[in-house]
Amino acid sequence: MELEVLILIPVSKPRRGATGETGLWRVERPIIDEGKCIKCWICWLYCPEEVISEGQSGFPVIDLSFCKGCGVCANVCPAKAIKMVRE
Amino acid sequence: MSITIHDLRKSEGSYLPGSASCPGCGATIAFRIASRILGPNTVYVIPACCFSIIQSPYPRSAISAPILNFAFAAAAAAASGVQRAYKFLGKDVNVVVWAGDGGTVDIGIQALSGAAERGENIIYICYDNEAYMNTGIQRSGATPIKAITKTTPMGKQEMPKDMPMIVAAHRVPYVATASVGYPFDLANKLEKAKRIKGFRYIQIFSPCPPGWDFPVEKTAEIGKLAVDTYFWPLYEIEEGKLRVTIKPRKKPLKEFIRMQRRFEFLKDEEIEEMEKLVMEKWNFLLHLERSERVF
Predict the structure, then answer these.
(1) Record: contact B17-A40, CB cut-off 8 A
(2) What is the fold of A22-86?
(3) Interface ipTM
(4) pLDDT tens column, A31-56
(5) Domain ranges in chain B?
(6) Three-state SS across chain B?
(7) Interface mutation vs chain B, best among A43, A46, A52, A65, most B CBs within 10 Å
């Protein structure tokens, strides 16, 4: 049943990039070394921004338009496959 | 049956990238995991806290689940109302309060206590970053002793409130502590809480890089060290029975303290003193674990 009541309270709509391109905040860029990556997905688990997803090759891919460059992924990676490089 | 990373990857979360959180935010890690466990059939009630900022400015939202933003003092009361309205409509919905430590330990405590006493069927999650962070790092009732905040420039002199135990004293069915550093423990506790009816309370230790003044990439490491040094013991109280869920090998508290600049004025003797307090708490918990019922 659809609500027929006119909503008078302010309602926000969810979308990606609600605060804009947060990738612009970044000072250091994470780079994944696919040779070392063991696909454990620990980086995905700890990423505070949920920018890591599975790419076509099956390795993690980072969405750099929203990655804030915190480096948590590089810090938790058990294989040391992520390097932080200055932008 | 415990949750694996594949279960978490398969399930759908409610967090969208590009929010207003600080880089390396511990609370968003907690929310990402929690939203995956709680599932799409969930309504969040969020009082004034970091998360009402992280949601992003009107008219956009970085969280794809229904949210009711509410006044600081009344999160648990609002959630009670939402839950009863859904019950009246004949819908079974998880109603979750997602509040910071200020809205839980200080300002929201009477609404929380009332809801716990009435036995409302809600999940109350407090992500504990141990001060009022989004207003500029003022002390709260959950700030640990000796920690520097903007309102305690010489270090806090008082002990923090033991909130999980205060809620457990209401004889609610489920109370637990969790940490961002142990995400699977957090996921398992949420999964368990989801299946129980009645008032459930979980307090998640979420490190805050700007507030505690540590390098942004260390969020997960700090969350793990807090548990490993027994600073933040992980336990659950189910129907009055306490169980310590993670018993790591003890690391010196100094490792945890020296990583954060909020403890930078602490002398070695003071760390020894804190170590004693921490061990006292840990031994007390082990003692409670052996007893039949805590409350």
Answers:
(1) no
(2) Alpha-Beta Plaits (3.30.70)
(3) 0.90
(4) 999 999 999 999 999 999 999 999 99
(5) 19-290
(6) CCCCHHHHHHCCCCECCCCCCCCCCHHHHHHHHHHHHHCCCEEEEEECCHHHHHCCCCCEECECCCEEEECHHHHHHHHHHHHHHHHHCCCCCEEEEEEEHHHHHHCCHHHHHHHHHHCCCCEEEEEECCCECCCCCECCCCCCCCCCECCECCCCCCCCCCHHHHHHCCCCCEEEEEECCCHHHHHHHHHHHHHCCCCEEEEEECCCHHHHCCCHHHHHHHHHHHHHCCCCCCEEEECCEEEECCCCCCCCHHHHHCCCHHHCCCCHHHHHHHHHHHHHHHHHHHHHHHCCCCC
(7) A46
